[in-house]
Amino acid sequence: LNAFLDQYTDSPLRASVRYDLGVAYQRLNQNDKAIEAFLSIEKEKATTTDLIAQGKSRAAAAYYNRGDSERSLALYKEIVEKYPSSPVMPQSMRWARQISVERGESDSFIKWSGEVNSTPIDMLSMDSLQWETAHKFYVQKDYPMAITHLDRYTAQYPTGLFLPDVIYARGESYMGIGDT
Q1: Is the pLDDT of residue 119 over 70?
Q2: Per-residue pLDDT tens over the stretch 29-69
Q3: What separation in angstroms does the CA of 133 have from each of 48, 50, 80, 168, 179?
Q4: Does the structure show a pLDDT above 90 at 21?
Q5: What CA–CA distance (Å, rounded) separates 104 from 130?
Q6: Predicted confidence band of residue 118 (pLDDT cuts 50, 70, 90)
Q7: How far apart are alpha carbons 77 and 36 in whole angstroms?
């Protein structure tokens, strides 16, 4: 594939070859080379926005797999914002949500989601997302972070759907840090 890219500098197939090269590198677990190949698709003359978005999605997955959730999240958000009609946009939105929860950034995801979507996120979804974030830290026994997010939940959703679970997890978290 690299030989093709070297030999055929004006070929309309270069973007597709770069995508295939990225897939090959990903299968060989060479994430840095895969990311480089996927992100270089955009520079090719004869490319489509769908192929660019697919390449960025693959690059975001490679960043995520090597533990760089910040760059992964940035690429997923870019796909949602710049390529809203792409077939990978819904998947990118789900990944942006998941990574935001993992990073404890549900508030910023809710804000961002409202800015990029024509339909704002509904209250039940916000309630659920905040609980999911708090619960993640609670289950991981990261009690200080759990308490922060559980307190945020009770402040934002004093009659929320998950309030009984929040109260229980909050008490357990305080016990976990030795503050009873």
Answers
A1: no
A2: 999 999 999 999 999 876 789 999 999 999 999 999 999 99
A3: 36, 31, 22, 15, 22
A4: yes
A5: 9
A6: low
A7: 19
What is the C-alpha radius of gyration for the chain, rounded to an integer number of angstroms? Answer: 21
- Nearest-5° Cα angle at 92, 89 to 96: 140
Residue 25 banded pLDDT, cuts 50, 70, 90? very high
With 0-12 / 13-18 / 19 or more C-beta atoms within 10 angstroms meaning exposed / middle / buried, residue 10 is exposed
Q: Which two tokens stand for residue 114?
A: 């409202």
3-state secondary structure of 112: helix
Tell me, what amino acid is at 125?
Answer: S
Packing angle, helices 49-65 and 31-39, rounded to 10: 160
pTM of the model: 0.81
Burial class for 79, CB neighbours closer than 10 Å (0-12, 13-18, 19+) = buried
